[in-house]
Amino acid sequence: MLERTIRLAITHRWLVLLMALALAALGAWNFTRLTIDAVPDITNVQVQINTEAPGYSPLEAEQRVTYPIETVLAGLPRLEYTRSVSRYGLSQVTVVFEDGTDIYFARQLVNERLQSVRAQLPEGIEPKMGPIATGLGEIFMYTVEAEPGALKADGQPWTPTDLRTLQDWVVRPQLRNLEGVTEVNTIGGYVRQFHVTPDPLKLVAYGLTLRDVMDAIARGNANVGAGYIERAGEQYLIRSPGQVTDIEGLGRIVVARRGGLPIHVHDVAEVLEGTELRTGAATENGREIVLGTVFMLVGENSRAVATRTDARLAEVNRGLPEGVAARPVYDRTDLVDRTIATVEKNLLEGALLVIAVLFALLGNLRAALITAAVIPLAMLMTITGMVQNRVSGNLMSLGALDFGLIVDGAVIIVENCLRRFGEAQHRLGRLLTQVERFELAASASAEVIKPSLFGVFIITAVYLPIFALTGVEGKMFHPMAFTVVIALVSAMLLSLTFVPAAVAMFVTGRVAEKENRVVLGIKRVYAPLLDRAITWRVPVIAGAAALVVLTGLAASRLGTEFIPNLDEGDIALHALRIPGTSLSQAITMQTALEARIKQFPEVDKVVAKIGTAEVATDPMPPSVADTFIIMKDRADWPDPDKPKAQLVAEIEAAVLQIPGNNYEFTQPIQMRMNELIAGVRSDVAIKVYGDDLAELLRLGEAVEGVVSGVPGAADTKTEQVTGLPVLSVVPDRAALARHGLSVGDVQDTLEIAMGGKTAGQIFEGDRRFDIVVRLPETLRTDLDRLATLPIPLPRDSGQLPLAAGAAAVAPGLPALCDTWASCPADAPDYVPLGEVASLELAPGPNQISRENGKRRVVVTANVRGRDLGSFVENARSEIEAQVELPDGYWIEYGGTFEQLISASQRLQIVVPVALIIIFGLLFMAFGSARDAAIIFSGVPLAMTGGVFALLLRDIPFSISAGVGFIALSGVAVLNGVVMITFIRKLREQGDRLEDAIRDGALGRLRPVLMTALVAALGFVPMALNVGTGAEVQRPLATVVIGGILSSTLLTLLVLPALYRLFHRDSEDSGMTAR
Q1: Which of its termini does the chain have fewer beta carbons within 10 Å around, N or C?
Q2: Contact (Cβ atoms closer than 8 angstroms) between residue 332 and residue 308
Q3: In a 10 Å sphere around its CB, with 0-12 CB exposed, 13-18 middle and 19+ buried, how is residue 176 labelled?
């Protein structure tokens, strides 16, 4: 069938060439549609549930919000686990589903359960699902800032409130409706509000309460519709507009009447524009800014969405007031472009090296061009497959393409055609006719098509088990396997059709019947080595076996890690301060930190998020800041060759001199990916589970002490679970009973006075701003005066009116009434807060973390200077020896190490399956378990080269390296298949065993060297490149190069010795065992 296909391709050669050109044109068109990205999105399927609980302590948020939500989510289909964090005023529950679950189906399940739990939550508490984004979702950040000296139309300078208003009502609405954008999150500045700040003394004097003020504003700031009437054929809508439009109107709202006179809001309160009690802020280069973050919708392409966002932001800027601009500070496109530049460089250099080898060893320009033409044709066909299957072009999908592997099949066919053409011309003493050339091209191609295609098919087949990888490792390497399989299948198709047709058409004229000087020189060295290997076959094989055993021992010294960290170029600095640090103090400390970092000439800008943004995708207290250090291009560095690790060490040494901060260094994407995948931002997480927070903290600190002493530990810290200063207003129930009050009466007044409550909104076109009632800031921060806060008493409490003796609450205020009878009918009585409650200031929980319904404390650490796997094993043994756990408490390990364990377990299945596939295919090809085993022996010897290559370059074993070993297993048997096929053919023609082995090895030397060289050289740029993303490709390329070198040694020396050892001459087929 294969020979018939080849002859058909040569007969219809023009049609074959036209079809190849058509496929190339289709690929070129699809190239314009191919989405480009940096790396595949490896975030698991998860849904965030954010619940704002204003005024709730972490303990209350856990008890009253987090726990009910976690409980109701139990038993969801395809649920993997849940984790949560409860902070002051916020509960976040993350629901993680099994891979493959549709995100919209998962959100629908969660939403159904949330509907049923709402009745169990406190009044006014509304859980909301987070944006439909992933760990790679934060693709674009920008600032809204005013130029120095810029003024508004009224001549006033721009304030943070003005800039935040522009962001909320001008910039953000234009960005959030972009295709591919799911959310635009804002942090920094102040949300504009209208504040009504009553004076407690005046309220007491007029016999009013905070609730009266709120109710009056609500009733005096509303529009009412009253249906319609018909008159003279027309319909008139009836409405009564009552909304206020400015501060003056708000102040004129009537609260009550006293002595026949109206009491307005401005009589008892100051009405002014104020700011929110914000939970977060943003800074840039030591000054406060407004920062917007664009989140990409799941499944979209980050480069395309970021490009659209940048273009729209330019349009938005044209509509902003003079002196105000929205400027990008982080654009994912920069990272994508740098990464793709690395991939392009690798592919181009690899292609050039492959073509150079083809020209050097084939010795025929046309033949080399035909072989090289397979590279672009296969690449364009691969791009078509990627577009049709929605695989983006990224570091993983394109990073493992080796043009040497792609042309291996074509090299074997073209080399054999050249050899046969030369022999025929030498035998005939003339040039071949067209008919002779076509016939000889068909027979020469058919002669080697089976081993050629079978070898390439084996390489393709070993990639198939990679599709069995699941979870993070599956999402990372599936695109790679898919792309390589498509490329190799395309190459096989071209080798079967295009290559024979092109050789028959274009390789005309005289073809040299002898190899060129390079090959002849190599043969002169190889021939005596081959003879000695066959003669000393037992020592050679014993040496090879010893080398395999030595490799196994050496492999145990290899460290382990999940995947090498992608160098994003920029740096993320996680700054932690003492729990309870105020937001204003944190901003002051952050500006000092940024000023120090900005002194480094390599730094372009420093941007920070402090606390929690408007949408709490990343809940942080004000004491924690995410600092993004955006670097200049290396060409602009004073020393462009300075290693990034050295710069990070210098920055770390500099910032450690600033007191009051702890730091953790990572990278922007890496930080978010680690957090969303494992719930922590560090390489290793030691999770201590139990019930009592104090005991968990004690155990966590003990674990931290042990881990910090393990070599390689960096940034070791225990989760900040305590230390948040809490002012508790504890009601005295006995005193409340004496005054006829309830706990709710005290809490209601305290909630309005200190936290503030919304009493309505003021509209300015589309814009709307809350009206908030609360005490003036001078009173809110005065704890002594807080004790005198008047609590209204019920009229039937039996107490004497306070107005006559109101000195305790309002000294010097004229009494409104001296006796009960003379008091206004609606005048309430009051009692100071200090008489019915005590004020207690004490540290409380800072945050409470849970996982699968159980409390936990997490100790995190980054690993530097050693591999991740050995560090965890060392830490685990030290913890088991030094930390004693009480009953009911246990420890688990997480972080990226968790993904390493999962991937290692999966590879323990995938690698044996790949090896079984190889042996099975070899047995099918040769029908002999003995010959299959001889060729299969190339796999362990090839792996020796891979292991020693990793050791020489001091690269730990990672999943990238593991995939390299899988690919190497297929590459290692390709040349063995070609050589054994040729040796068997010579024996079938009657050659003696040793003559067949010698002639077969020497005759196949050129194709063996060519396939080995092109395959190895195709990976050389990946192994040596230092561009963005090169560190992810480096282990794979290193393994394949080292393995190909050692497998070539096997094919040329050990394989002939093995064949001679296990075969002998025979009268029938010469294939019986010795």
Answers
A1: N
A2: no
A3: middle
pLDDT at residue number 815: 42
The span from the CA of 418 to the CA of 424, in Å, is 10
List CB contacts of 895: < 8 A, sequence separation 6 or more: 674, 678, 680, 682, 683, 684, 685, 860
Residue with tokens 């490799």: 551
**Percent helix / strand / coil, the chain, rounded to 5:** 55, 20, 25
- Rounded Cα–Cα distance for residues 566 and 31 (Å): 25
Q: Rounded to an integer, what distance in angstroms lies between the CA atom of residue 1006 and that of residue 979? A: 11
Instruction: Give the C-alpha separation, 441 to 1025, whole Å.
Output: 40
Longest CA–CA separation in the chain, Å: 137
Q: Is 468 exposed, middle or buried (0-12, 13-18, 19+ CB in 10 A)?
A: middle
Which stretches within 319-364 are classed as H helix? 332-362
The pair phi, psi for residue 238, each rounded to 5°, is -110, 125
Q: Where are the alpha helices (DSSP H) in 1004-1029?
A: 1005-1024
- Per-residue pLDDT band at 127 (split at 50, 70, 90): very high
Residue 1058 CA from chain centroid, whole number:
48
Who's near 564: CB < 8 A, 6+ residues apart? 958, 960, 1031, 1032, 1034, 1035
H helices present in 580-619, as ranges: 583-597
973-1003 per-position pLDDT tens digit:
777 787 888 888 888 887 888 888 888 888 7
DSSP 8-class letter at 859:
E
Whole-angstrom distance, CA of residue 649 vs CA of residue 1012: 42
What Rg do the C-alpha atoms of the chain give, in angstroms?
38
Residues 6+ apart with CB under 8 A from 425: 431, 432, 510, 511, 513
Which run of H or of E encompasses 819? Answer: none
pLDDT of residue 689: 93
What is the torsion angle, in degrees rounded to the nearest 10, for the CA atoms of residue 519, residue 521, residue 522 and residue 528? 130
Those residues with Cβ within 8 angstroms of residue 476's Cβ, 6 or more apart along the chain or in another chain: 39, 40, 42, 396, 563, 959
Residues sharing a CB contact under 8 Å with residue 707, sequence separation 6 or more, in sequence order:
684, 686, 713, 716, 859, 861, 875, 878, 879
Least confident range of 199-203, 386-390, 1000-1004: 1000-1004
Instruction: State the pLDDT confidence band at 383, using cuts at 50, 70 and 90.
Output: very high
* 337 CB neighbour count, 10 Å cutoff: 15
Residue listed under structure tokens 């005590």 = 838
CA 385 centroid distance within chain: 25
Q: For 151, which DSSP code?
A: B
Structure token digits, residue 29? 């068109």
For 343, the 3-state DSSP assignment is helix
- With b for 16 or more beta-carbon neighbours within 10 A and e for fewer, the 472-505 pattern comes to bbbbbbbbbbbbbbbbbbbbbbbbbbbbbbbbbb
Two structure tokens written together for 752: 């309005």
How far are the Cα atoms of 176, 188, 289, 587, 765 from residue 163, in angstroms, in the given order? 18, 9, 8, 18, 18
Pick from 122, 134, 132, 136: nearest CA to 91: 122
Instruction: Report residue 812: phi and psi, to 5°.
Output: 85, -5
Instruction: Tell me how far the alpha carbon of residue 637 is from its chain's centroid.
Output: 28
* Strands (E) located in 655-806: 662-666, 684-690, 713-718, 722-731, 757-764, 767-773, 790-793
143 three-class SS: strand
**Residue 330, Cβ density class (10 Å: 0-12 exposed, 13-18 middle, ≥19 buried):** buried
Q: Is 972 exposed, middle or buried (0-12, 13-18, 19+ CB in 10 A)?
A: buried
DSSP strand pairing (624-631 vs 684-690): unpaired
Residue type, 925: A
SS3 assignment, position 867: coil
